[in-house]
Write a structure and sequence with these properties.
Length: about 500
RNA sequence: GGUUCCGUGGCCGAGUGGCUAGGCAGAGGUCUGCAAAACCUUUUACAGCAGUUCGAAUCUGCUCGGGACCUCCA
């Protein structure tokens, strides 16, 4: 059995994964800021890390997967007017801040379910961990790496960098940035006068009077800075040192860099051993972002209603689309690409249904030894590919190579005994395991409704009767009318008919 | 401007030295009352230039082009 290798952003190379505690894995993934609706971009990291979660469990690890909810809000634009996004919007919408947060949290959970992402083990909220964050900030201040100005607390990046560079852990170790170069090239921003240096970041922010979300702290009423929650919550639930920290590539700097600095001061350790970052989704080659006005929410994607969308896309199509590319590559969104995925998924789905109906029968040697070997090889590579930095795209490619074989057996182009019974059984087991449990694809192409199925089967029988009488007008009408409803009949070689719901 | 990643056939997208990735689309065929589906066969490729090598999409250099981060962001 091959060993799991993961690309560690910290080292910039693939490494063999070795957990801190044998048999256990601590996984922390930065969750969404619930000041707005989840969008297409959110689908990527949570599907990516759902795969990581599923695979680690498959390997037999007991995994604690912590994925936070950022409900305390951050700055619209740090350095300008400090505005809590959540409270600001709440005023506009005349809602309680927590009401708004709840609404978007619910929508996010709904979207995660649609995408068939497993629930994390713990889903802590920033507002639920204010105390832990304050304790951490106090520790950083007492160690001399933060300073208080007008009720706000800033992390002293320059001092940190000077001291920790000696340990080989400079500020910028994760993102490959050099502090001196950054300072030299940072743009001038307004209202930065509280900071000693532009690279410093807020641990705690004094809340102006109009600010609704506020908590008492040793420095006055305010709210936590952008980065501290993840440090506090990951340490609380996974320990000062844990295995994997994940998130989108855009979080690598400054968010994760700052997390490392904060945690390193408090606990004298770089918090996570492996840092995994998924790449971005782009739309027409451009990153999705508020500033580009090309944000497609997940509700729009699943239900229609965005100008860029030509049609509605099923959540499984989105999941499949994401899995068809490696998580560290950018994935360009277009209707054409999604429609191609939709068709591909349908093909896979139907072959999978066909496969489940095959019966391995008694044991016998494979009459087509080459084919038997080919199938075994394609199947054995599934595990190899997953262990090679979660190469889901390659697994799907192998599955598509198996599709013609499966359909061939079903259509009897390939002899029933071409494959050894054990091989066929292995094929069924592995396809099921990887499609459903590892990749998390739900391929329900039957109705799941017995009455409905009975009705369709009745129509199929009527069509068979009509064809037997060469009454093609009737038989075509049944087929075409069902097609118009979205039920596709398929005439099979042996005279049987099957159907799929589109 | 700094840091960094990338440039693969009509579209999407794997692939780090030699062996057809795969999906969608296109073409031909088998099957079929017709169609669809399925199956078989098949066209189009590695931005450009130079170099290393027996051999490069894959390594090196340069050129051109694009993205991302440096600011809220998945």
């Amino acid at each position: 059995m091959s060993e799991l290798k993961v690309y560690n952003s910290l080292k910039r190379e693939k490494e063999i994964f070795t957990p801190i505690t044998p048999g256990h894995v601590g996984l922390y993934v930065c969750g969404p800021t619930v000041s707005g609706e989840s969008h297409l971009g959110h689908a990527r990291p949570y599907v990516t890390f759902d795969i990581v979660f599923r695979w680690l469990m498959h390997l037999g690890y007991k995994v604690r997967y912590v994925r936070n909810i950022t409900d305390a809000g951050h700055f619209e634009e740090e350095g300008r007017i400090a505005e809590d996004k959540i409270s600001n919007k709440a005023v506009l919408e005349k809602l309680e801040p927590m009401e708004l947060v709840q609404k978007y949290t619910n929508l996010y959970h709904w979207a995660m379910k649609q995408l068939n992402n497993l629930d994390p083990s713990i889903e802590p909220t920033a507002t639920g961990h204010i105390v832990e964050q304050i304790v951490m900030i106090e520790k950083i201040i007492s160690d001399g790496y933060a300073y208080v100005v007008n009720g706000s607390v800033y992390f002293d990046v320059t001092k940190y960098n000077t001291d920790f560079t000696k340990k080989g852990e400079p500020y910028g170790m994760l993102s490959g940035r050099v502090l001196d170069e950054m300072i030299a090239t940072t743009r001038d921003l307004d209202n930065q006068e509280e900071k000693r240096n532009t690279a410093d970041f807020a641990l705690w922010k004094n809340a102006p009077p109009e600010h609704i979300m506020r908590w008492k702290s040793p420095w006055g009423e305010g709210f936590p800075g952008w980065h501290i929650e993840c440090s506090a919550m990951s340490a609380k639930y996974l320990g000062e040192e844990f295995d994997i920290h994940g998130g989108g590539m855009d979080l690598q700097f400054p968010h994760h860099e700052c997390e490392i600095a904060q945690s390193n001061v408090c606990n004298h350790k770089v918090p996570a051993h492996y840092w995994i970052h998924n790449n971005m989704i782009t739309i027409n080659g451009r990153k999705m972002g508020k500033s580009y006005n090309n944000v497609i929410t997940l509700t729009q994607l699943f239900n229609g209603g965005h100008p860029l969308l030509e049609q509605v896309y099923h959540p499984m199509v989105i999941r499949f689309f994401i899995l068809q590319t490696h998580y560290r590559s950018t994935l360009d969104f277009s209707n054409e690409a999604l429609q191609a995925s939709e068709k591909g998924l349908k093909r896979l789905s139907e072959a999978f249904t066909n496969l489940k109906k095959l019966t391995p029968g008694n044991n016998h040697p494979a009459t087509d030894k080459n084919l038997d070997n080919k199938v075994q090889k394609l199947l054995s590579e599934f595990e190899e590919f997953m262990n090679d930095d979660f190469s889901t795209a390659k697994i799907l490619a192998n599955m598509f190579e198996l599709v013609p074989i499966i359909n061939g057996i079903k259509d009897k182009h390939i002899a029933a005994d071409a494959l050894n019974a054990d091989t066929l059984r292995l094929l069924q087991e592995n396809m099921k395991l990887y499609i459903e449990d590892i990749l998390g694809l739900q391929l329900n192409i039957t109705t799941g409704d017995n009455k409905m199925e009975s009705i369709i089967n009745m129509l199929i029988q009527l069509r068979k009767d009509a064809r037997a009488k060469k009454d093609y007008a009737t038989s075509d009408r049944i087929r075409n009318d069902l097609q118009a409803i979205g039920i596709q009949l398929k005439d099979e070689k042996d005279g049987n008919m099957s159907f799929v719901i589109n």
